[in-house]
Amino acid sequence: MHLLTAITPHGFGHAAQVAPVLNALHGRLPDLRITLYTDLPAAFLRGRIRSDFEQIAQAPDFGLLMDSALAIDLESSAAAYRRLHNDWEQQVAEQARVLRRLDPDLILVDVPYLTLAAAAVAGIPAVAMCSLNWADIYRHYFSGREEAARVLEQMQAAYRSAQAFLCPEPSMPMDWLDNRVAVGPIAGTGRAQPEQLRRRLPRSVGDQRIVLVAPGGVKARFPIDQWPHGQGIHWLVSADWQARHPDVSHYQDTGLAFTDLIASCDAVLGKCGYGTVTECVANATPLLYVPRPDWPEEPTLLRWLEAHGAALAVAPERLDDGCFADLLPALAAMRVRPCPTPGGDEAACHLERLLVP
């Protein structure tokens, strides 16, 4: 049996959402052949997905084009959608030819709608899974554009063509979809190793709070080299940043898996994206989140994050000046209420029923 999984490369959150499902499915069907259709880094995917897989290193969609981890390039995004839908039938036909060559028994998408439309033309069963969909995102930002009605009609038809749209808790409402299937939260859980983490950091860290900086997979670099020293915080950042700061370490140098880092640090600094939110709650780690008031998914995610006591807002200007010391008392007082994350198993069970009728 062959499962093709198309993953949007808009950050790492979509792949983080898919990984627990594929891991659970591999446990149920160890001989399942898995092909990933995404241009996300292979090293990241192999760090999350336990089974063997082949990768087609191409982007099945783009989601939104970003100026930074927090800022959307709205004009470029709208233009890209316009170009795609000006040539929609040909794009679908070309994708259908690709899918027929790959010959999967089932397609899982998170959440490229072009792949769904092509699967319908190719006659290959397909399932969507995500906490959002690009039609609702497009409607939020671009509904006033001349081409919007046509674009939305084609988007929505693609999503409706899926045999099911699996919606993990917490998801956007998506009331216009009649193929919705609710599943529980999906998140990777790590092993808390705070003492081991501290042993792998410089001795000067002492009793400082350890905060993992996780912008969510969108290329970004905060001006951390100019942040104040001696705030009682030690920052873990990506080695790609090449940071030079006495209170900074590269998280890759710890040797811990990323979910183990989330479970072992004192907090995560990032945004309200599904993967970051659910993994913080699942691992009982507070999220210092930078609000994105215009991001339509944020209210749903933030309500859930706050319900579990894991949310501490960080004003965007703090990313420039780096002044976080005054947040430490509130951080110390937080008690995150973790919850079970059965959604990966539930989604895998649904896929197994389609693969093995």
Q: Could you name the CATH homologous superfamily of the largest domain?
A: Glycogen Phosphorylase B
Number-wise, the strands total 13
Which of globular, elongated, flat, extended, rod-shaped describes the shape? globular
Can you tell me the residue ranges where pLDDT is under 50 for at least 5 consecutive residues? none
What topology, given as strand order, has the largest sheet? 3-2-1-4-5-6-7
Percent helix, as a range, is 25-40%
Search tags:
2 domains, alpha/beta, Rossmann fold, 357 residues, 13 strands
Question: How would you sum up this structure, described in words?
Answer:
- The protein has a 7-stranded parallel β-sheet, sandwiched between helices.
- It has 14 helices and 13 strands.
- With 357 residues, the protein is of the alpha/beta class.
- α1 (13-28) links the parallel β1 (2-7) and β2.
- The protein folds into 2 domains: 2-186 and 342-355, Rossmann fold (3-Layer(aba) Sandwich); 194-333, 3-Layer(aba) Sandwich (Rossmann fold), CATH 3.40.50.
- The model has no long low-confidence stretch (mean pLDDT 96).
- α1 (13-28) packs across α14 and α5 (113-122) crosses α7.
- It has helices spanning 13-28, 42-48, 74-86, 88-102, 113-122, 134-142, 148-160, 194-199, 258-264, 274-282, 298-307, 318-321, 328-333, 343-355, and strands at residues 2-7, 33-37, 54-56, 106-110, 126-129, 164-168, 180-183, 209-214, 233-237, 248-250, 267-270, 287-289, 311-313.
- The two termini are 12 Å apart.
